[in-house]
Write a structure and sequence with these properties.
five-stranded parallel beta sheet; two-stranded parallel sheet; alpha/beta; Rossmann fold; about 220 residues
Length: about 220
């Protein structure tokens, strides 16, 4: 099977915390497995509030320069990590101004896939809170978006890939991607359909299960 998105890069969001390297490692390994270029992206944000009224605020230029210097350190550290882990991967790096969700949505336009890490929050908060990067990127990206949890969230060994199915054309595309990922990583594939009573109306449990399996 020819990997999806040949010629386009895998885009990996780089977190400011240097201890969060699980998603970065996954993206580097993915790029090596698929023989695709990897683009590391760190969004440095924009100068915002947060100072008390009595405090003297730095100038916009000083604030922006501080953000830029911090962002460069974060990105250079990530580049060094990937180069050591997968030196054969064709690597590029981008330090961008703006909010992470917006920057990554823009980068997704010409990406084969986008890889994000999960935050140190609860399972629902980490991926689906309004403050999360993952949800707005998943909602607007035209390519697959992979959210890689930190090791503390993992409970299953060996690893498995879960794909949600609902019988739609979008679901079929998701299944294709899931099969590809499971094969690349030697993982088990699990298809998941959530039964909604409202969809099937008042039917017995056996009939509902048969309808789900037919998808």
């Amino acid at each position: 099977m020819v990997p999806m998105g040949v010629g386009r890069p895998i885009v990996a969001g780089v977190a400011p915390d240097p201890t969060q390297r699980t998603a970065l490692a996954w993206a580097a390994d993915q790029a090596a497995l698929r023989r695709m270029p990897l683009r590391l992206v760190h969004a440095e944000g924009v100068p915002t509030g947060g100072y008390r009224k009595s405090e003297v605020r730095p100038s916009w230029e000083e604030w922006n320069q501080a953000l830029h210097e911090t962002g460069e350190r974060v990105l250079n550290s990530a580049v060094a990590f990937v180069e050591e882990r997968q030196p054969q991967v064709v690597l590029s790096a981008l330090l961008a101004e703006g909010e992470p969700a917006w920057v990554l949505r823009e980068q997704a336009r010409d990406a084969a896939e986008v890889v994000l890490g999960s935050r140190h929050l609860g399972p629902m908060e980490g991926d689906f809170s309004p403050a999360s990067v993952a949800l707005p990127v998943m909602t607007h990206a035209s390519c697959p978006v992979v959210v890689v949890p930190e090791p503390e969230h993992r409970t299953q060994d060996p690893a498995f890939v879960v794909v949600g199915v609902d019988g739609s054309a979008h679901s079929a595309a998701a299944v294709d991607v899931a099969f590809q990922q499971a094969a690349l990583h030697g993982a088990v594939l699990r298809a998941l359909y959530v039964h909604s009573p409202e969809r099937f109306g008042r039917v017995d449990e056996h009939t509902a299960h048969d309808a789900c399996r037919s998808l």
